[in-house]
UniProtKB/TrEMBL annotation:
Species, as recorded: Flavobacterium nackdongense
Function: Single strand-specific metallo-endoribonuclease involved in late-stage 70S ribosome quality control and in maturation of the 3' terminus of the 16S rRNA.
Protein name listed in UniProt: Endoribonuclease YbeY
Cofactor-binding details, from the entry: Binds 1 zinc ion.
Similarity comment: family membership: Belongs to the endoribonuclease YbeY family.
Primary location recorded for the protein, binned into one broad class: cytoplasm
Source organism, top-level taxon: Bacteria
Gene3D superfamilies: Metalloproteases ('zincins'), catalytic domain
Cofactors that this protein relies on: Zn(2+)
One Gene Ontology term, aspect cellular component: cytoplasm
Amino-acid biosynthesis listed as a keyword: no
Annotated residues for binding of Zn(2+): H105, H109, D115
Length: 139
């Protein structure tokens, strides 16, 4: 089950398409969908989580809490809409594309992909691109 929660004025206009896509991504990695919660928030909300849970005092676009057990993918992903908007401008991509990249990035972490080393980052970006290509609005 995939749920979308909003702690800011933002709301997805295509929850069903996003949910179907995330489910397809999980299946494409030979995993099973457990429970994934996306929580969309603002910078200050996510900064507070970053400070309280990770002892980091800086803004970020996503913080994910992984509850995956075996092949069943589960977790909570907190996404700052403000950071995603800024990053979209910085990377010269649409807000929608950057948001989907962040959303699938968290799922790929749950599937076991890392982004600490240079080679991990290259693989993560490749996987993100592969999974973004799976998204279709009319699902």
């Amino acid at each position: 089950m995939i749920e979308f929660n909003y702690e800011t004025e933002f709301a997805l206009d295509n929850e069903a398409a996003i949910s179907n896509w995330i489910s397809d991504v999980i299946v494409s990695e030979d995993k099973k969908l457990g429970e994934i919660n996306y929580i969309f928030c603002d910078d200050e909300y996510l900064l507070q989580i970053n400070k309280e849970h990770l002892q980091h005092d800086y803004y970020t676009d996503i913080i994910s809490f992984d509850y995956t057990i075996g092949n069943e993918i589960s977790g909570d992903m907190f996404i700052s809409i403000e950071r995603v908007k800024d990053n979209a401008v910085d990377f010269n991509v649409s807000f929608e594309d950057e948001l989907r990249r962040v959303m699938v990035h968290g799922v790929l972490h749950y599937c076991g992909y890392k982004d600490k080393s240079e080679s991990d980052v290259v693989l993560m970006r490749s996987k993100e691109d592969e999974k973004l290509a799976m998204f279709h609005v009319e699902q």
